[in-house]
Amino acid sequence: MLRWQNGAEVYHHKLLEWRPEKNPRVSTVNPLDPATAQNTATGQNTATGQNTTTTPAPSNPLDNVRIVLVNTSHPGNIGATARAMKNMGLRHLYLVAPQRYPSDEATWRAANAADVLDGAIVVDSFEAAVAGCSLVIGTSARERTIPWPLLDPRRACAQAYREAARQPIALVFGREDRGLTNEELQKCQLHIHIPTNPEYSSLNIAMAVQVLAYELRMTHVESELTADAMDGWDFAYANNDDIERFFTHLDAALTEMGFLKPDAPKQTSARLRRLFQRTRLDAMEINILRGIFSSAQYWVRRAKGGQGDGDQ
Ligand code: SAH
């Protein structure tokens, strides 16, 4: 029987034991259970009155990204870097021993990114610039003698973005004339080489910053799109307990139908699991599917009963 309850479809079948939750959106929260009674909007535990939220909502990962320029000689490049950063939503600029800074040329080239330039932190060592960062990525215009973990800009920036959701990370750029030293590159966990024409592989430093800042931005945009796609979703994703009960029900129903043989290899169950795990079922979808299983079980039992096997 299909009926509407609190605006939500729920399936009931009077002959079977299983009953779906009345309102799947809040089914996992018991206001009397201190462990689960949490107001998702305020983080307040409605049973104890205490705030139980330990991890704050993640801030914008781009705010956890540092752009580090080592020993830059041309102030115009510092200004152009600030502009490239601001265009892509980055704001933390670290300058390791810049050769000419502050400078009017840097200010002109920064255009409307004067705030990024004004906020730049000048330090005297590589270590000071990357202090507190969990991931330090060095950039290089050419292959170096010692092989090092090397990623292309897209993959490296996707990893950097993921890590920046938790801790600060740094992208480090070298001197215009000779890049980063081997010693500096070896202080990085990861290297990036922007694919370029091998006959002329060296980009202007601000342009190299632009390329990587763009990749970070694209990762950010994609993560926002993914988040948005589920934002207005009407039901929460099913929780793990519900999903496990769903799989148990699926196996039971398919076994009753004779589709799954209890003593046969479990490959089919595993494949069905993989199929449903891929789809990220929401609580209502679980209810619908379980309603279908229950209905199938009912008719199978009736059919068997009709043949004299009994109904229970
Ligand atoms: N002649 C230097 C080039 C330095 S270019 C050399 O051979 O190393 C200045 C900086 O811009 C580099 O240190 C690096 O940080 C960045 N850069 C330039 N081209 C790059 C590329 N193709 N891939 C990654 N970073 C690059």
Brief write-up:
41% of the residues lie in helices and 12% in strands. It has 312 residues and is α/β, with parallel strands linked by helices. The two termini are 20 Å apart.
Please give the number of β-strands.
Answer: 9
Might you state the CATH topology name of the largest domain?
A: Alpha/beta knot
The helix count comes to 10
Strand order, biggest sheet?
Answer: 5-4-3-8-6-9-7
Largest sheet entry: 7 strands, parallel
Q: Can you tell me the CATH architecture of the largest domain?
A: 3-Layer(aba) Sandwich
Oligomer: single chain
> How much of the residues is beta strand, in percent?
5-15%
Category from helices, strands and their pairing: alpha/beta
Mean residue pLDDT: 80
What ions, cofactors and ligands are bound? Answer: S-adenosyl-L-homocysteine
Counting structural domains, the number is 2
| N-to-C SSE string, H for helix and E for strand | EEEHEHHEHEEHEHEHHHH
Shape: elongated
The percentage helix is 40-55%
What does this structure look like?
With 312 residues, this protein is α/β, with parallel strands linked by helices. The protein has two domains: 61-229, Alpha/beta knot, CATH 3.40.1280; 239-312, Helicase, Ruva Protein, domain 3, CATH 1.10.8.590. The protein contains ten helices and nine strands. The protein has helices at residues 75-87, 104-110, 114-118, 126-130, 153-164, 182-185, 205-231, 240-256, 267-279, 283-306, and strands at residues 2-5, 8-11, 65-70, 92-96, 121-123, 135-139, 150-151, 169-173, 190-192. Strands 5-4-3-8-6-9-7 form a seven-stranded parallel beta sheet. A two-stranded antiparallel ribbon has the order 1-2. Helix 1 links the parallel strand 3 (65-70) and strand 4 (92-96). The longest helix is centred in the last third of the chain and has 27 residues, at 205-231. It starts with a strand and ends in a 6-residue tail after the last helix. Mean pLDDT is 80; it is low at 1-58 and 308-312. It binds S-adenosyl-L-homocysteine (SAH).
